[in-house]
Amino acid sequence: MSARYRRLASAAVAVLSLTAVLTGCSRANTTAAQPTPQDQGTAAEVRLGYFPNVTHAPAIIAVDKGYLTQQLGATKLTTQTFNSGTDEANALLGGSLDIGFIGSGPAINAFTKSNGTIQVISGAVSGGAELVVKPDITAPDQLRGKTLATPSKGNTQDVSLKKWLSGNGLSGQVNVANMDNPQAFNAFRNGDVNGGWLPEPWASQLVLDAGAKVLVDEKSLWPNGKFPTTVVVVRSQFLQQHPATVTAVLKATLAATDWAAANPADARSAVNDGITRLTHQSLSPAVLERAFGEISIGADPDSSTYPQLAQDSVTAGIVKTAVKLKGFLDLGPLNKVLAEQHKPTIDAAGLGNQ
What we know:
By secondary structure, this protein is α/β, with parallel strands linked by helices. The protein is built from 14 helices and eleven strands. The strands form two sheets. It has a six-stranded mixed β-sheet with strand order 2-1-3-10-4-11, with helices on both faces. Helix 2 packs across helix 10 (243-262). The protein is globular, with a radius of gyration of 25 Å. The relative contact order is 0.17. The model is unreliable at 1-33 (pLDDT under 50).
């Protein structure tokens, strides 16, 4: 072998060896487990989502009465409103929201799609959903061939309606139209839909302002009439990075809840003002009173109901199998605040992180 050939061979081996080392380093870097986010102190900004609905009363009050800005201090509050839990869940999954008031159905879906990186940290509102229909419809069988509205496919009321239809042998025999709640009101008055499974205040508005009647009050389908309509969820990464900011939001929500309980008439007015600001339409006193009578405001997320809710999504045909909900609830920050305020803590019913 010539000296020149030996030098070239040695150089080639060196290059290959270096390449192997660099490749090994690159692979190690890309396959290494990502570090758990650490507490970075208070966030510069928190992006909060909620609905202009009576069932989101704690959020509306916390925003409009200033409880959030008081608790957040120097942290900038940016709010965004939604008409669909599906849309809000997508915003959370896409990282454009940090914390959201959302229905239990979309919360479960977001937890599933994110592989557990979105969690429920508090309840907000229980109850406040009904199937309201044309007054000549008095029994489930009369719904065959009719059209009913729900806010969006896979949202809390959509799952409830489809489960109920299944239980009454009506799957595939009733048209389900997904539309924003204000559109459902107009569609009902125009005769385009025969009713809808709707949250408050829209169910009350159809009853009092459009002549609908209640065929099913969802409370009648749950033990003690308790089921979670609105919960508070957070991106787990945001909670890990900014626990103090999440705690501030929880404190503000609890303050809004306590104020509403102590001042029911003022709370109705505050929520109406908030809805009017967001939608440019106000609710009548009668609709407000009826809607508030249908809901219960509180931090308890009704933890024991979620396995059934997950199964309901299967029954409704939204998903094929019920998701395992271990880690779905992280009530640690909430319970810490409740304990500091000398209030009873809330059990996660085996769905916590521990």
